[in-house]
Write a structure and sequence with these properties.
It is elongated, with a radius of gyration of 40 Å. The chain has three domains: about 190 residues, no CATH class; about 140 residues, no CATH class; about 100 residues, no CATH class. It is mainly alpha-helical and about 450 residues long. The strands form two sheets. A two-stranded antiparallel sheet has the order 1-2. The chain contains 18 helices and four strands. A hairpin with a 2-residue loop joins strand 1 and strand 2. Helix 13 crosses helix 18. Bound molecules: zinc ion (2 copies). The site of one zinc ion has 4 residues, from helix 1.
Length: about 450
């Protein structure tokens, strides 16, 4: 199918929001109508005389208008001044429109009991709608588009009680027919609800949400960028129409976008919270988080006051407020435990110094619990590296440890010096309590040191 379509841009506006730039085009589209082929249907013009007769009647009924086009009304008459308009592109309009009505009718009754009936039928109707053509806004609506919908609805009404199927029940047929009717009614371009929503309105609705959502909190560091750059203005993912081969997506309305933002808020908040931070080891600076939560809670309250009469938007604000309150409580309760833990970690780490660890190793070696470094096949330094790697008790380099170790192991006087008394005592009491032999050697030296330095 060869389509002749032209886009007209009247105005380009640059819109900025959440630090993004976007262009909004306003204008119109001009598409010349094209003929369509019937789909393969069990009920068709070849086997139904009544459809052939009614098709003739319909042509006769609309001919007075189609013959006049574009002088059928004031708006369409203006098309003669439109540069791309050529009356040759609008031939046999009576037959074209009657065909489209009946092809649609046959398609509906043929596919209504298929598994993918809804998508199949609605894709077809969307495709036929496009085939009727589009006029730029100031030249009136697509010629006979409204009639197409009305005739299709009328034909459904005449047969809906007599359609039968081996696949689905009478009741199910009825339900499906009603859904198709509802689709047609909502799809009609003359339906005011079907007007394309104002992009600016959608963007500002999103921006409001983005601003009030507490993305600046530590919790949302990882996802903030995603929500800044992906603006969910599409109500559904792109859908490929099987008949027109055109990809279409439906834009949100302000209402549906707000509803989806409420859902997004609930979704994010149910996944991200203090407990998930704690599990990921990210709950460190609780004082800062607490401070941020208090500020954000207040900001949210103030924002809510501005929207006192906007009940829809307060939907996600309620969710946010509840979450902020819960988080504040959680962080308050968990902080003392985190403090104790980090303090304890610090004490443990501070207690064992390089010198103490060197003493500990020396006594363990003296008691035969650890090999002497010089016995290692790769040499002393490699032995020390292995030891430090395996123990993880202190944070130092092998070289530095070796200097401290040599100092106390090579000369007994260094070991039992006055300034070592507290170190030996610590090593004996806290580090060697599982190794009595090594402990006794340490305690002996402790006595020596004490008596020598008295
Ligand atoms: Zn028929
Ligand atoms: Zn007209």
């Amino acid at each position: 199918m060869h389509r002749r379509k032209k886009l007209f841009v009247d105005k380009v506006e640059e819109i900025s929001f959440c630090g993004n730039q976007m262009f909004q085009f306003t204008g119109g589209e001009y598409e010349i109508p094209f003929s369509i082929q019937p789909t393969d249907c069990a009920h068709n013009f070849e086997n139904c005389e009544s459809c052939r007769e009614n098709h003739e009647l319909l042509m006769k009924e609309i001919r007075p208008l189609t013959d006049k086009f574009p002088f059928c009304c004031e708006q369409h008459a203006k098309l003669t001044e439109f540069p791309d308009f050529n009356i040759e592109d609008y031939k046999n309009l009576d037959k074209e429109i009657a065909d489209k009505v009946y092809f649609t009718h046959h398609h509906i009754i043929d596919r209504i009991d298929n598994e993918d009936w809804y998508e199949d039928i609605t894709d077809y109707i969307a495709y036929v709608t496009e085939s009727i053509g589009t006029l730029p806004p100031q030249y009136g609506g697509s010629f006979q588009l409204g009639s197409y919908f009305l005739y299709v609805l009328e034909l459904i009404r005449t047969v809906e009680n007599s359609i039968t199927s081996d696949e689905i029940s009478k009741k199910e047929i009825k339900i499906r027919i009603e859904k198709i009717k509802a689709f047609i009614n909502s799809f009609r371009k003359d339906n005011p609800e079907n007007k394309n929503p104002d992009l600016n309105l959608l963007l500002s609705t999103y921006h409001k949400w983005y601003k009030i959502f507490p993305f600046e909190l530590t919790y949302f560091n990882n996802i903030r960028e995603r929500y800044r750059t992906n603006i969910p203005i599409l109500a559904e993912p792109f859908h490929l129409n099987r008949y027109s081969n055109v990809k279409v997506a439906k834009l949100h309305t302000k209402e549906s976008l707000t509803q989806s933002l409420i859902d997004t808020t609930k979704n994010i908040l149910s996944q991200v919270n203090g407990n998930s931070l704690l599990k990921a080891g990210l709950l460190t600076d609780t004082e800062k988080i607490k401070y941020d939560l208090i500020i954000k809670k207040r900001e949210t309250e103030l924002f809510e006051m501005q929207l006192i009469d906007n009940s829809k938007q307060s939907g996600y604000i309620k969710v946010l407020k509840k979450w902020l309150k819960g988080e504040k409580k959680f962080i308050d309760e968990i902080t003392p435990y985190l403090k104790n833990k980090s303090q304890k970690n610090r004490e443990d780490k501070q207690e064992i110094t390089v010198l103490k660890f060197a003493l500990y190793i020396y006594y363990m070696q003296a008691a035969g619990k650890i090999e002497y470094f010089e016995n290692h096949s790769n040499g002393k330094l490699a032995a020390i590296e292995e030891l430090l790697e395996g123990s993880k008790v202190i944070d130092t380099t092998a070289k530095y440890f070796q200097i401290a170790y040599n100092k106390i192991s090579n000369h007994k006087t260094n070991r039992i010096a006055n300034n070592q008394i507290s170190n030996i005592s610590f090593v004996a009491k806290k580090m060697l309590n599982k190794y009595p032999e090594a402990r006794n050697i340490a305690l002996e030296e402790l006595k020596l040191a004490q008596s020598k330095n008295r």
